[in-house]
Structures are given as C-alpha cells and as structure tokens.
Lipoprotein (Neotamlana sedimentorum), 281 residues
Amino acid sequence: MKNFFYILLAITLFTSCSEYQKALKTEDIATKFKLGEDLYNEGKFGKANKLFAQIVPNYRGKPQAEKLMFLYSNSYYKMKDYYTAGYQFERFATSYPNSEKLEEASFLAAKSSFMLSPVYSKDQTETYKAIENLQDFINMFPDSEYADEANKLVQELDFKLQKKAFEIAKKYKVIAPGYTKDFNAAIKSFDNFLFEFPGSSLREEAMFLKLDAMFQQAINSREYKNTVQEGLVHLRKERLESAKEYSSTFKSTFVNSKHLETVNEMTVQLDEELKNYSTKS
C-alpha cells in the first residue's frame, strides 16, 4: 500500500511537470494563461510567472490583459523580486487607472519599495524613496483598507532614518576622546538629529549623549581661544556655562529620566569648576 502511494505520487508529479513543459512550448496562449493561473493559485509563482511572461505581449489591448498583468505583477512580488514587482505594479496602475485592483496594485507598488529599504547602517536612498511612495499612496487613497498598514510602514522607515542619524552622532562622540579630541562634530550631529526628528523615541538618549559630549568638552577644554572678531575668548568658561545650561534643560525636559543621577553629578562638577572663575573675578 505504501509503495502504491509513492508510485501514485511520482505519476502525479510527472504528469504535472509534463503538462507544464507542454504549456511552455505550446503556441496556444489560452492554455498558457489557464495553467499559469492554476499554478498561481497553487502558490507556484515561479512557474506561473514564466508562463505569464510568454503571453503578456499577446494579450496587450485585450479584455483579459488587466487580470493577466495583475497576476504577472503579483507573481514577482510573491517571488520577492521587489524591484520588478514595483515596476510592474506601477505600469499596471498607469495602464488601468479605472481598475478595481488599482488601489491594491498601488499599495503593493509602494510596499515593494519598502521591502527594498536596507538596514539602517547602509545607504538610505531606497528608504527615502519608499517613504515618498507610501506617502503618495496615502495621499491618493486616504480611506484605503491599506492606509493603516501604509502609515505603519512609513513610521518604520522613519525610525530607520532616525537610527542611522543617531548612530552617526554616537560614533562621533565615541571617537572624540581618544582620537579627534574634538566633540564639536558629535554635538553638531546630535543637534541635527534633534532638529530633524523632534518627536523621536531616541530624543532623551540623544539629549543625554549631547550633554555628555558638552560636559567632556568643557571639562577638558583649553582656557582660551584667539578669534579674529572677538580677540581672546575665555573658551573653557563658556563651554562650562553652556553645558550647565543644557543640563538644566535636560532635567526639566525629562524629570524621570534614567540618566538623572548622572546628570546631577555632572551639574555638581560643572558648578565646582565654575566657582574657580567667580573666585578669580
């Protein structure tokens, strides 16, 4: 009985493969379409795609073309070929602006670009493009059943941009003490991050790291800087005052911060250092 089952399975597979090979070779486009659709519905998207690709030119301008082009586009999406899927869905939307599948095709075109967005540590050109495409979809179909998902995808992409900017600023801060001896790049990068992403969930951490950079820069600063406009400037004192002011801003902004104890310790040390200048004056 067991052997009979395996024989039956082998016959079924052979027949199926034979039918597919015949369809690939036949000139009958209707046969290709029907088998391609059957394979698509069975989840065999690679095989279906090959059959669809053979007949797309033949159906151009025909009533069945709309259905074929959607299945053809979606077969690429199911195969995770997101570059081609996005391109084909965009073509579908342009070619069939009155289709009942327009909304779904437009969403899948935008989602294809989302799928192409790389990890935050890599170049984010595709991420910016994906955000633009998803936002265009949301603007075009504000009441779409896909609108909630599209908004969540935008938020995910936006956080990726936040993470990249945050990590760049962090890197500048890490290398400053032992390598560059200059915290200006880190402070400026954190400023840019806080300006560009004011509502970020990383805001507290960014402000704390900026404060820490300002603190380390102030404590280890040289006393004076000679400038063309102002002449001799009391650089260290200015930096200490700026760091103390920013520590107050941090504490008033994040009253329950996990960093509060560290910030208070910084403030005490900054006050002690500033006393030296009040004594001198």
